[in-house]
Amino acid sequence: MVWPIIGYRMCSLLRSKVQSMGSFIHREPVWCLPFSGLTSTSVVSSRTRPLTKVMSWTKPYCGHAATSSFKEQQPEDSSNCHRLSPENKDLDVGNMAETDGNQDLFDLMKKRFLSFKKHAYIKELEHFQALAEAQSPKFLVIACADSRVCPSNILGFQPGDAFMIRNIANLIPAMKNGPSECNAALEFAVTTLQVENIFVIGHSRCAGIETLMNMQDVQSRNFIHKWVANGEVAKLRTKAATAHLSFDQQCRFCEKESINQSLVNMLSYPWIEDRVRRELLSLHGGYYNFKNCSFEKWTLDFKECNVTEEGRSYAVKEQEFWG
Ligand SMILES: [Zn+2]
Hints:
- This protein has 13 helices and eight strands.
- It is an alpha/beta fold and 323 residues long.
- It has two domains: 2-52 and 135-322, Beta-carbonic Anhydrase, Chain A (3-Layer(aba) Sandwich), CATH 3.40.1050.10; 56-123, no CATH class.
- The two termini are 18 Å apart.
- It binds zinc ion.
- It comes from Lupinus angustifolius.
């Protein structure tokens, strides 16, 4: 993604319409590298918002998505993949990928549920009973439906922490695209729950983004095609900025660019734009790379954004790299 990783100084140069943005990027490919060009100086410190209470029963995400190349880089006791402590090792009750037959799958699910009840619900009874009455999540999270990237696993969201939307390629359509289950959930989270943060989380090797990038016919009636077409602007920006890169590199680029398109699209909803303007709501982007188990986080800099009928530009701030 181009725009988020450039220094703040560069943002003013990019405050232009889509077309001119593309041509600028094309001339200066060094700025196009999506986060892969991050240096220690471009990464903001570890100033991170502490996650809300992480209960002891949380089973860390470790394993299936790790590639051989990643494993080769990590020592056996890698801190990237926490071991279960003795007190909760009975949570390690099995692996669905290694389970045959539906009955076994549901048996495993039952064990996990009873483990949750024993180690979380009963231990934190007061907390869970309060949650039974009402929710007041700090976050609305929009993440891909991909089975490998559950935000509760990788970022430790606990019951009550985050209202969550998951869809193909973690896309937020612009308001003009009409109603969908996505913007219905968006409206509920913002106007009723009054969340303080919206966090759009993308990921590496996203099949939805690959479909978008491969799609030739924007008029296709295929449901998947019609959905991912919500990312068409990100695709056009990507194509304009990365014509010299391989298709795989273009997809990595678009995975991040589409997150920013979704952040900007959210400003087309007046009840979001108003709360962002009054600093009651912040819009964040995140990118999970499960090939090397790293995470990038940034925040849309609303004051530096310029979204009009004629064009749109945006800037980001508070970039962090966790890995
Ligand atoms: Zn995906």
